């Protein structure tokens, strides 16, 4: 999808300095959990765009992105201040490492990686897949959705640190396809932990958000 104005459906707080922004899906928009869109805003005549991975399990009627709101930033606070009916320009989707109906998934998320993690987890669980989510953050967000995943049968592990220890605690099938989302240091640690635990990291689908700010 080329740059298109989409309508804000809702903005809700999902944790400390974090909001989920839901947009109406434009005609013909097709995307899968694990893909991302670019969101644009204008500030004092300067245009800014950032990439956000989808945090909704599908885009049939709406799609969602999860936004960390840095008080010193521009686009994050601006998105958090949007109201129902506002229009925002987006483009995409982008990305090749997305959920494709795998029978078993283990999703490792660090910090902002929880957005795509809950999206993949919800979609895979709805499809009848075996789902494990490991989430590392000292201030977890999307706790309601993580709790719902656990209640619905997914294995959900939330830790403040040491993703390696969390991976070693897993009891799910090591044949699960790994999905990894987070800043680069987390992704490196997660892949190392998966390898040590016997997962096939050659099949891993990884989206690094770059160095942590």
How is the topology of this model organized?
Blueprint: E1 4-15, E2 18-24, E3 36-43, E4 46-53, E5 62-68, H1 75-80, E6 87-94, E7 104-110, H2 114-126, E8 130-136, H3 143-151, E9 155-159, H4 163-168, E10 177-182, H5 184-196, E11 205-208
Parallel strand pairs: 7-8, 7-10, 8-9, 10-11
Antiparallel strand pairs: 1-2, 1-6, 2-5, 3-4, 3-6
Plain-language structure description:
- By secondary structure, the chain is of the alpha/beta class.
- It folds into 2 domains: 4-94, Beta Barrel (Elongation Factor Tu (Ef-tu), domain 3), CATH 2.40.30.10; 104-208, Nucleotide-binding domain of ferredoxin-NADP reductase (FNR) module (Rossmann fold, 3-Layer(aba) Sandwich), CATH 3.40.50.
- The chain is 22% helix and 37% strand.
- It has 5 helices and 11 strands.
- The protein has helices spanning 75-80, 114-126, 143-151, 163-168, 184-196; strands at residues 4-15, 18-24, 36-43, 46-53, 62-68, 87-94, 104-110, 130-136, 155-159, 177-182, 205-208.
- It has a 6-stranded antiparallel sheet. The chain has a 5-stranded parallel sheet with strand order 9-8-7-10-11, sandwiched between helices.
- Helix 2 links the parallel strand 7 and strand 8.
- It is globular, with a radius of gyration of 17 Å.
Q: Number of DSSP strands?
A: 11
Based on Cα principal axes, name the global outline. Answer: globular
Number of domains: 2
CATH architecture of the largest domain: 3-Layer(aba) Sandwich
- Number of helical segments with 4 or more residues: 5
The CATH topology of the largest domain: Rossmann fold
Largest beta-sheet details: 6 strands, antiparallel
- Side-by-side strand order of the widest sheet: 4-3-6-1-2-5
State the CATH superfamily name of the largest domain. Nucleotide-binding domain of ferredoxin-NADP reductase (FNR) module
Portion in beta strands: 35-45%
The CA-CA distance between the termini, in Å, is 29 Å
Mean pLDDT: 95
User: Residue ranges: pLDDT <50 for 5 or more in a row?
Assistant: none
Alpha-carbon Rg, integer: 17 Å
Q: What series of H and E elements makes up the topology? A: EEEEEHEEHEHEHEHE
Helix content: 10-25%
Q: By helix and strand content, what is the structural category?
A: alpha/beta
The CATH C-level name of the largest domain is Alpha Beta
